[in-house]
């Protein structure tokens, strides 16, 4: 059965916009799990723009499924992961000025550092996944550095305009899945997936888990709006 990891970063984005304590990504994670999510993902960014250290610490104690910590491969983040011990770590590239993760890791270029950091994380019992483009060289390099999983970056598939380009991107993803499987790498996928574009990717066999954030949080805000307004109206005794 295909698994769903729900990324709750943007609950924290709303909280940080006001600098207050709600909405709490910990509460969102509990609701996602109660609705059937197979895992909770958070990205602790170096600039702490959404998820905070406190969130990761509390999520470690409260998540009942699997906690996947997305992070840059810095010494600071590796130290945090070794302290918190999430079930899985997904290593991602991180740029200070990007709005969201913009591409996959260049595993081929970063081989020696990655090998060392992955070994440290795996020794602590953490499953390690690398966020990569659907590119055969990156997948081979991921195997070489000792990753357990790759997470295929689906952003380009989601962004291209024409159906021809979309088919090309799906083919790239399909080839990437089969290359990873041959190397015994587990395969996850994510980024940019929404209620309209996910179907064709689900139809490709071999993806174990999808990590989805923005579209689920966006939908949650809208489908919850009616109830939130009705509750406030009740307090106004209308
Ligand atoms: N996977 C990775 C590695 C990511 O960096 C992100 C974004 O934080 C996601 C999945 C989720 O992407 P989206 O928010 O577009 O669903």
In a nutshell, what does this entry contain?
This protein is of the alpha/beta class and 238 residues long.
What tags apply to this protein structure?
16% strand; binds pyridoxine-5'-phosphate; 10 helices; 238 residues; alpha/beta; 8-stranded parallel beta barrel; TIM Barrel; globular
Structural overview:
This protein has 238 residues and is of the alpha/beta class. Helix content is 48%, strand content 16%. It has helices at 9-18, 25-34, 53-62, 75-84, 111-123, 136-144, 155-159, 163-182, 198-203, 214-235; strands spanning 3-7, 39-43, 67-71, 88-91, 127-132, 149-153, 186-190, 209-212. Strand 5 (127-132), helix 6 (136-144) and strand 6 form a beta-alpha-beta unit. The radius of gyration is 18 Å and the shape is globular. The structure holds pyridoxine-5'-phosphate (PXP). Residues 7, 9, 43, 70, 90, 92, 100-101, 131, 151, 190-193, 211-215 line the site of pyridoxine-5'-phosphate. Pyridoxine-5'-phosphate binds next to strand 8 and helix 10.
Helix content range: 40-55%
Distance between the termini: 46 Å
- State the helix count: 10
Instruction: Please tell me the overall pLDDT.
Output: 96
Main sheet properties: 8 strands, parallel, barrel
What topology does this entry show?
Elements: E1 3-7, H1 9-18, H2 25-34, E2 39-43, H3 53-62, E3 67-71, H4 75-84, E4 88-91, H5 111-123, E5 127-132, H6 136-144, E6 149-153, H7 155-159, H8 163-182, E7 186-190, H9 198-203, E8 209-212, H10 214-235
Parallel strand pairs: 1-2, 1-8, 2-3, 3-4, 4-5, 5-6, 6-7, 7-8
Helix pairs in contact: 2-3, 6-8
Bound molecules: pyridoxine-5'-phosphate.
